[in-house]
Design brief:
The chain has one domain (38-75, 97-235): Rossmann fold. The protein contains 8 helices and 8 strands; from the N terminus they run H-H-E-E-E-H-H-E-H-H-E-H-E-E-H-E. By secondary structure, it is of the alpha/beta class. Helices cover 32% and strands 16% of the residues. The protein has helices at 3-11, 28-31, 77-87, 96-109, 131-137, 141-153, 176-183, 211-222, and strands spanning 40-41, 50-51, 67-73, 122-126, 162-164, 187-189, 199-207, 227-235. A 4-stranded parallel β-sheet has the order 3-8-7-4. The chain has a two-stranded antiparallel ribbon with strand order 1-2. Strands 5-6 form a two-stranded antiparallel ribbon.
Length: 245
Amino acid sequence: MDLKKFLLDIIFPQFCLGCGQEGTLFCQDCFSTIEILEHQFCPFCKKPKKVLSKEKCRIHQTMNLDGLFAATSYKNSLVKNLIRNFKYEPFLKELRGPLTSLIITQFLLTKNKYFIKDKKNLLLVPIPLSNFRKRWRGFNQSEEIAKILSRFFKIPLLNNGLIKIKKAQPQVELSMEERERNIKDSFDLKNPQAVQGKIICLVDDVFTTGATMEEAAKVLKKAGAKEAWGIVIAREELIGRVSRA
């Protein structure tokens, strides 16, 4: 056992954020209670609409984002609590492993595993943060998730290729229309050649309205990316959102 970790566990013992069990921030018992989504849904339809892997919704053929893989629902209170502790104070970076394992589990247990079978043309691209937000948090949560996915699935990672060039308001309190205006023209690519002809997997923690991923996908497609797909831990409920149809 790592001596430093052993001593830290004695001085600052960890307790599960779900049940309070000592020893880990996210125990296996709590992990097993989280429902893994078995199906893909159109990212942009107001009412949940199932789509097949590698298939776009008929209504939203013109969107730049080709589809979304979400491991679970953000309405789950435990998932929401874990992500909030990861992204906001106390910024528990060690939650990156347990949270990313939800994505890995979904890909291994569902038909989505066929999407990542041909790794030759796949490229993982994390959604970037502004320099200010990254300094404030100490890390980019999307990068941390993408690094683990890259190692586990052996998919190349383009880190710091997609960059944030415009300081925008945090999206969390904005409406759908405000999010789209807020994020517009926020991204750029350092090396467009790196994405040409590639199937891009955009990695983030939560998918809400899709404004951020759609804007990033637009930049990638303009640079020559063949496809752009989203991969997230959790997505907000579709019902109640303003439709993009």
